[in-house]
Amino acid sequence: MKTIHAGLIGFGVIGSGVVRILEESRELIARRLGAELRLKKIADLDIETDRGVPVSREQLTTNVNDILEDPEIDIVIELIGGYEPARSFVLKALENGKHVVSANKALLSKHGDEVFASAEEKNLTVGFEASVGGAIPIIRSIREAFAANPITLIEGIVNGTANYILSRMSDGSCDFDSALREAQEKGFAEADPTFDIEGIDSAHKIAILTSLAFGTSVDVDRILVEGISTIGLEDIQSAADLGFRIKLLAISKFDGESVDVRVHPAMLPNDHPMASINGVLNAVRICDPWMQENVLVGHGAGSLPTGSAVVGDVIEIARGILSGSSGRVAPRSFPQKFRRDIPLRDRDDITSAYFLRVKVNDQPGVLSTLSGILGSHAISIESVLQKERCAKGRGVPLMIMTHTAKERDMRHALQKISELECVDENPVLIRVEK
Amino acid sequence: MKTIHAGLIGFGVIGSGVVRILEESRELIARRLGAELRLKKIADLDIETDRGVPVSREQLTTNVNDILEDPEIDIVIELIGGYEPARSFVLKALENGKHVVSANKALLSKHGDEVFASAEEKNLTVGFEASVGGAIPIIRSIREAFAANPITLIEGIVNGTANYILSRMSDGSCDFDSALREAQEKGFAEADPTFDIEGIDSAHKIAILTSLAFGTSVDVDRILVEGISTIGLEDIQSAADLGFRIKLLAISKFDGESVDVRVHPAMLPNDHPMASINGVLNAVRICDPWMQENVLVGHGAGSLPTGSAVVGDVIEIARGILSGSSGRVAPRSFPQKFRRDIPLRDRDDITSAYFLRVKVNDQPGVLSTLSGILGSHAISIESVLQKERCAKGRGVPLMIMTHTAKERDMRHALQKISELECVDENPVLIRVEK
C-alpha cells in the first residue's frame, strides 16, 4: 500500500485533534483512501508539553523547515493561526510544491488572493474546510455540490462563542457578562474573546464564503461588523415577547450588481431556520433559485470537529495525488481568471427592518416625537412596545419595530433621537431578518 | 473555451429541471468550470410534449443509442427511474466509456454492486447526489467531507411526500387520507403514492447511504420497512401530548459488528434535531465521535432542487475530465476491494423504546393485564396515558410508552396483547428515538 506523507505546523488544540484522528481512524482512512496517510513531522515551538495524543520523539521538531523542505512530505497542515508567520509558511510550502491544508480564517480572508493565486499557478490544492463552520461541510458544498447554483444569499451563525452567550442569555436569563464568564469556564471562549464577541471572527468567515460563492474578493476591513456586547438582557426578552430570537448573523447577499456583506446581531422570527440553532452549534444557510435553500448545522469549533474537517481535506488532497488530479477544482470554486470585482454595497445603502430600544423619560409626547423623527426619515413603524413604568424620572425602555428602511435614513434618525433631551442613553439598534 | 458534451436520457420532471438549469446557469457554470457544458442530446419516448424549457428539434431523439453511442458525449445523465431499461442503459454507457449521473435510487440500491463495479473497473465516475435528499449534499459529504469519520449513525427524513402528510396531520389536524389527497393536489405526491408512504423509497435511500458510510452492501428487501398509512390522527395527537412528533425515519446504525438498517415511523422528542423538519423538507443527520453530528436540511424533491444536484454531479465529472482525474474517489467512498460484508442486524435483535396504542374495553384490570404481559417479556413501562372514556362498551385508547426493549420481546408481547378479549383492534406500535 502506498503512503502519503503530511507534516503538521502547530500542535495546539486543533493540531492535537488532527493527530488523534489520524491515529484512531488510521485503518478506516486507509480503507477509504486505498493508501496509508502518515503524519511524518509535527513542528511547534513547544515540543515538551504532553498533548495526550500518541507521538514519537522523532516526529516532533521546533524547526518548521524540517517540514517545509522535506521532499517526502506532500501535504502541509498549517494550524498556528494568525497572519504571520502562518502566511510565510503557507507561501513557502506552496513554493516548494506542497499542497496545503489550513484552518486559518484570518489568514485566508486577508491574504487569500495571494495564497490562492500561488496555489493555482503551481496547480496545488489549498484545503480550508475547517476555516468556516468547523465540521460543517460548507466550503466543499459551495465549491462542488452547489456549482450550478446562482447563490443569492448566505447567512450563517459561524461563531460558537457568541452563539453560546446569546443562547444562555436567552434560555438562562444570564446577563452578558455572566454568560461570557460561563463560556470561558467551559472552554468555549478564549481568555481574550474580542474576535468572537465583536464579530471579527465571523467577518473573516463570511468573507471566505463570499469569495467562494460569488467569485469575488471582499476587503474584510470594509465589512459592516457589529458585535454582541451591546445586547442587553432586556433586548433578548423584548425579542422573545415579539416572537423573535437574537443571533449574531454573518450575511452575504448578491443581487447581481453588488454584494451586501455584514456581521451583526439580528432578530430572527422563532420559525426562522437559524432561530433554533443554539449553544455552540453553528449553521450556514444558502439560498438560490434552484435548490431554494440548504441549511447545514454542526459543531463549528473544538479539537475533534475541526480536526476531522482538516483530515477530510488531507484525504481529498491525498486522493488527488493518488489519481494524478491536482488542480481539479479551483480552491475558491472560480478559477482566478473567471473571478471578478463585485462592488461591496455601501453600508448606507443596505436595507433592513429594525428594532430600536430607546430609554426615555416617561413623559407625554415622547412617542409622538420619536415617531415624527422616524417618519421624517421615511421610516415607518410596525409596532411599539413599552415595558412597565418605573419611578418618575427614571428611564423607561421603549421598543420600536420598523418596516424595511434604508440604513442611511436610520442612521440619521438615530442621531436625531439620541440628541433628544427626553432620551436617557444611546439607543440600541438591532436589525431584523425575516 | 473547451466544451464538454452530455446526453440526457429521460425528459420528465427532473430532466426538464436539468435542461433549464444548464441553460439559465450556462455562464455561471462556464465561469466555475472554465469550460462550456453542452447538452448535446435528449432521449425520451415522448419528444412532442412541450416541457416549457428551451430545446432545439435536433437535440431530441427517441433513440437512446444516439446518446450511448455518440463518441463526443462524455457524460450520460439517466433520469428515467426504475430498474429496466435504466440498468441496461447505465451499464451500456459505462461499457462505452461514458461517465454516468443518475438520480435513480431504486436502481442504485438494488443493482449498485453491478453498476459501481463496472464504473470502478473502467475508471469512470457515477454521480448520484440527486438520488438521496435531492439538493442536500449528503452523498458528497459522506464520500469526501466525512472521509476521516467513523460514522456510527445516519438518520434521515428522506421522503418529502410522507413528511408533508405527517406535518399536515400534525399541524392541520387533517387525517391521513385528506393529507394525502392534499399532497397529490399540490403535486407533492404521485397518483400511486405506495413507494413513498410505505417507506420503500426511503429504504432505497438509506441502503445507498449505508453503502457509502460503512462500505457494505445491504439487501434492500431484508430491511425492516414500515410505512405511515397505519398512523392515526390520535397517534399524532398523543405524541404531541407527550412532547413528541412522529416522522418517517430512515435509520442506519453501525456498532462495529452489524448494521441496523430500517425505515419506520418514529416518535421524536420536540427538541430532537429532526423533529422540526416539516413539510416537503428533507434532512439527514450523521453522527460520529469526531464531529459529533452534522444535520443537513434542504429540498429533497422537485424539478429544480433535484435538477441542480444532477448538474452539480455533471460539473464534478467535467472538472475531472478537464484535469485528467477520473476515478479520483471511489463512487461509494470505499474502493471495491476495501468494501466488506457487514451483517444486517436481525430485526428481532433491534432495541428501541416503544409507544403502544391499544384500543381496550374500558373495564377494571385491563391495565394490569397489559402491564403484566409486557413485564413478563422484560418490557418495562415508562408512562401510561388514557384518553377520555367513551360510552360503555366502546373501545378506549390506552397509550403506553416503554423503556428500551428488544424487538423480539415486543413482538411476542404484542401478539399476546392482540389476542386478549378486552382488546378491540390490532394495537399500533411506534418506535421512539431519543
Plain-language structure description:
2 copies of one chain form a homodimer. By secondary structure, chain A is of the alpha/beta class. Chain A folds into 3 domains: 3-134 and 303-338, NAD(P)-binding Rossmann-like Domain (Rossmann fold), CATH 3.40.50.720; 140-299, Dihydrodipicolinate Reductase, domain 2; 347-432, Alpha-Beta Plaits. Chain A is built from 14 helices and 17 strands. Chain A has helices at residues 13-24, 26-33, 65-68, 86-95, 105-121, 138-145, 160-171, 176-185, 194-197, 200-214, 233-241, 303-322, 366-376, 407-419, and strands at 3-9, 36-43, 60-61, 73-78, 99-102, 126-127, 153-157, 224-225, 244-254, 259-269, 281-288, 292-299, 351-361, 381-386, 395-402, 405-406, 428-432. In chain A, strands 7, 8, 9, 10, 11, 12, 13, 14, 15, 16 and 17 form an 11-stranded mixed beta sheet that branches. In chain A, strand 11 (281-288) and strand 12 form a beta hairpin. In chain A, helix 4 (86-95) packs parallel to helix 5 (105-121), helix 7 (160-171) packs across helix 8 and helix 13 (366-376) runs antiparallel to helix 14. Chain A is elongated, with a radius of gyration of 24 Å. The mean pLDDT of chain A is 94. Chains A and B meet through helix 1, helix 2, helix 6, strand 12 and helix 12 of A and helix 1, helix 2, helix 6, strand 12 and helix 12 of B. Strand 12 (292-299) of chain A pairs antiparallel with strand 12 of chain B, so a sheet runs across the interface.
